[in-house]
């Protein structure tokens, strides 16, 4: 019986009321926030501050900094400019009235990042600033009324660098100052803090569960009951405890400990802490090194405080920096790795781009990564972890498998802005048929805040629930580092409490590893669950500008890869020839590690701030300098010299594993009358034959009408008008290659303003703005019998121009002949995209593009939104459009962006984004590309010629008479097989840097792949002087997997389509 009238609660009013209890603003002094702190002390008497500000934006070590003079400072002072560092001596004296309080913290906030150090120089914990992660728990020993000292290293940047305003991708403001607002000792009411989280999650239940669910109504009732109890008790300590008891009705009684997870119910969402530290992005590497210490020290602290908590850390490079720069913190991490709570993951050197690195680079990301993880922590990784990279190339599953990883985690495809990727958990199949089990977090982020909604979305956005409904929830602050906060871990406990106590919310669990998660899926697959498959690349429908932005950086990447190829080949042979020659493993490792570092998923894609490219330029310069030195030393051991003086002593070095015959310009002669030679030879030393003007194959040029030039050799006859090729006839088959009315080598420019991410994106509508660049005068540049060329200057704008040389060399016997273009570009544009077009008379609905260890076929039409989404794609050294019987390949040197639309092939040359680097790509560029028409199908002619095009032969002076060693290891048989790498074994006794006790004696590693997509047979031949005893098939990590029979220096091999095979020759 009701004592009087009772009204129905208006749901929206009682729900909105909940916000009052924990919100800032007009009720803050009356609500739970007012009860959060029981006391506060600051000022000279309790928190005495002095500072040392190193000059010139230096980042001194603890020792260097603390040995300097400190001068007094106080709250309210500002520190800067951007990127500067300030070391604070913080002398803490806890006042007597706070000494008896339950829990004391130092709160420090200058809206920038910081790291707390002990007086002795141990890094303790990172600080984020701006109200986030500002607290450090004072040790009990500080409550003795005496003065205690710590240091705080302040970095004048926020988590996302130093952007001028709210738009974090704008170029950094170099002159930002940061005010120290808070440096207080604070007594925290821990029950109030816990109630805050209780109430947050109960409020989420009221707001986010369906309005017609009893679970939502219940949450609303309990939330209001808590507010009522707090008001009735005037916010006293006792009333807060009462409020928490009420909260238990919704959350259960276990949320204050990890016991909340120890129930007999089945979890479905597996939460794992992670902190995505971009190795460089809106800050330089030097800052990343400190971000690692700040982030991982916090995580160690959280692992101590929360027994259920697990954290994954990727990128071997970051561990290596930690080990070098913060050895005690590294030891702390290592102890936690041993305990199993801090979990190394990923197996790669950095979280790298996967579109542009070469096949061998991808291999080395894994080789260097896995070797680091195994040598430092005892185990290799089994999961390739790449949450943020911009698309995933088609051979990754095969390479993962060969590097000991059967699992792959990402989520980036959730950013697709055209099609929604249809799977969450699936088998990803590479070109050769290899598979890895892939999981894309349905929460669609790797920086989840561990909100109620993240847990909910882990089921509501799960796309593979017909096979398995479980998922990973990767939570923690990220991109700029940080990682999970204690609030996030507390929230997850309450989410689980709600699931077990009320239901409806997916049941989350913490305490498992990513490996546990995948192991369960693999078990399911073994027991018959058929996961959906996805064949080929995981094309990312966004960030397509990253194939082109920061051209110089991309060029350095390809040149480094080529140089490393040559260095390893020559050093291997030198070490076989001469036992006193020491294989330069350390230098080679340094070259590789630097190259791999620059392949980080913001660096190589071109999406960093300008400072990062100053850094990468420096690293690449080091790579080239070391490479030249190593090359010189190895060549000298092999009997050659790089100093070419007199022509008659010259030989040419062919480091590619096939026969080459090319007309090459000899050095020394003036450029007015260049002297040419025919270089002809297999891998190793090639002969140089000087060419007389009476050679039987020649090139010729004539102006057939005013401004129209005809260039020809035995293969082609082409007409150039206005800098474009209006006709290109293949004389061998009498066929016109240029589409009717089309102009090849036509430079075109596009307006390039993507929706937001400038350096990252080129958006589909840029195609509407195509503008043809009108060419200026064309002149004959060269008119010799061996090579002819014309040069055309094209004005882009008042500030920018292109000078393009189109040249044709005399054709050589049966070698493919191509038309070469070399451009010099002065580029000063603003948000424009420069491309060059090749309309060809070829019909096909698919074009082919070189990718790592294979060929990617993509549509040339826009039938479906999936086809259209690929309006700009990545290629390596060539792209090809072929029909039955004939095709055209476009070769490039150091470019990666391409598009084929119908019969229009378009190579992307330069972009001009203004964020985050305001000067990206401004200045002078040298660009080379070529048209290689071919009768018959796409085949090894394209693969080889494109390699040759990127890989000019070196001229050497020869001192020795025998060059046989240079061609002592060769591959014969199918031309589809490519011997892509020759190096020494990582663990060879005379090579190893001692990471492992194991030894492989002396060995040579060969990497071979099938390049065209079909089964292929070949034979490895090794000359007697190399002294091979046995041959092993091995994986990328150089573990033997089976012996290959070798007879009289010959071993037969067979590879399936697009297979990558590694062989170890035991000497
Ligand atoms: Zn990232």
What structural class results from the helix and strand content?
alpha+beta
**Helical amount:** 10-25%
In terms of DSSP E residues, the strand content is: 25-35%
What is the oligomer described by this structure? single chain
Identify every distinct bound molecule in the structure, by name, code or SMILES: zinc ion
Number of helices: 19
Q: Strands of the largest sheet, in order across it?
A: 35-36-37-38-47-44-43-40-41
Assign the CATH architecture of the largest domain. Answer: Alpha-Beta Barrel
CATH topology annotation of the largest domain: 7-stranded beta/alpha barrel
End-to-end C-alpha gap = 97 Å
Q: Count the E strands.
A: 56
Number of individual domains: 6
Q: Class of the largest domain in CATH?
A: Alpha Beta
Mean of all residue-level pLDDT scores = 96
Biggest β-sheet strands, sense, barrel: 9 strands, antiparallel
Question: Can you give keywords for this protein?
Answer:
Jelly Rolls; 56 strands; 1067 residues; 7-stranded beta/alpha barrel; binds zinc ion; single chain; 9-stranded antiparallel β-sheet; 6-stranded antiparallel β-sheet
How does this model look, in words?
The chain is α+β, with helices and mostly antiparallel strands and 1067 residues long. A nine-stranded antiparallel beta sheet has the order 35-36-37-38-47-44-43-40-41. Strands 3-2-5-10-7-8 form a six-stranded antiparallel beta sheet. It has a six-stranded antiparallel beta sheet with strand order 23-48-24-27-26-25. Helices cover 25% and strands 30% of the residues. The mean pLDDT is 96. The chain has 19 helices and 56 strands. The relative contact order is 0.08. It folds into six domains: 32-188, Sandwich (Jelly Rolls), CATH 2.60.120.260; 192-251, no CATH class; 260-535, Glycoside hydrolase 38, N terminal domain (7-stranded beta/alpha barrel), CATH 3.20.110.10; 549-639, Substrate Binding Domain Of Dnak, Chain:A, Domain 2; 739-775 and 809-954, Beta-galactosidase, Chain A, domain 5 (Distorted Sandwich); 960-1066, Immunoglobulin-like, CATH 2.60.40. Zinc ion binds at residues 276, 278, 388, 479, 601.
